[in-house]
Automatic annotation (TrEMBL):
Protein's name in the database: Regulatory protein TetR
Record-annotated HTH tetR-type domain positions: 6-66
Top-level taxon of origin: Bacteria
DNA-binding region coordinates: 29-48
Gene3D superfamilies linked: Tetracycline Repressor, domain 2 (1.10.357.10)
Pfam families: TetR_C_13, TetR_N
InterPro entries assigned to the protein according to its UniProt record, in alphabetical order: Homeodomain-like_sf (IPR009057), HTH_TetR (IPR001647), Tet_transcr_reg_TetR-rel_C_sf (IPR036271), TetR_C (IPR011075)
GO molecular function: DNA binding
Organism per entry: Streptomyces iranensis
This protein's UniProt keywords: DNA-binding, Transcription, Transcription regulation
């Protein structure tokens, strides 16, 4: 793919991410995405084979950026693992507390929707969330090793439970349009990690 083709494809993915985060997947038409990206109508299928293939690519792009953020947090060698974990959760909090708690996490916005609509998007979400939990598990294991964290269960089970807690808290924050559930998730997270 040429540089301009790659840039145009990424522009479509970036535009879609913003629009889909606000409206959901089914409510967004291809023409709306093309207009937001400044790409001529009729050229969508030049970049993607189908709307499902496009949705899968959008999710993969989202997760790649998400992983880069997580990896950047861990790369700060001047901090303990407990500080890395709390920095990650604070970033999660900040992302979900914006826009009257409407947030910007595509997993929160699309998880249930795409699980029923598109198998390829469901699988992309499953793979992406598993990779998030993998990173959280490693952060927790590192915290146990450096003594900045202690957990009552395995690092894996703890990572899965905390990620589920935060997804649920994000949904409740959206419903109530209040960060109260995110505040409680922060408190529970500190209790679970003993920090």
């Amino acid at each position: 793919m040429s540089v301009t083709k790659v840039e145009t494809r990424q522009s479509l993915l970036d535009a879609a991410r913003r629009i889909v985060a606000a409206k959901g997947y089914a409510a967004v038409g291809i023409n709306e995405i093309l207009a937001a990206a400044g790409v001529p109508k009729g050229s969508f299928y030049h970049y993607f084979g189908s709307k499902d293939a496009f949705g899968e690519a959008m999710l993969k792009s989202y997760f790649d950026d998400y992983f880069a953020t997580m990896d950047g947090i861990v790369a700060d060698k001047g901090k303990s693992s407990a500080e890395h974990l709390m920095r990650y959760w604070q970033k999660f909090y900040d992302t979900q507390a914006v826009d009257d708690c409407q947030g910007g996490c595509l997993v929160v916005k699309l998880g249930a929707e795409v699980a029923d609509l598109s198998e390829v998007m469901r699988v992309a979400t499953k793979v992406g969330t598993a990779a998030i939990v993998d990173r959280l598990e490693q952060m927790i294991a590192d915290g146990v090793a450096d003594g900045s964290v202690s957990v009552d269960d395995s690092p894996r089970a703890t990572a899965e439970a905390l990620y589920s807690l935060w997804l649920g808290a994000s949904i409740m924050a959206k419903i109530h349009r209040s960060p109260d559930h995110l505040d409680r998730a922060t408190t529970v997270t500190r209790q679970v990690l003993h920090i």
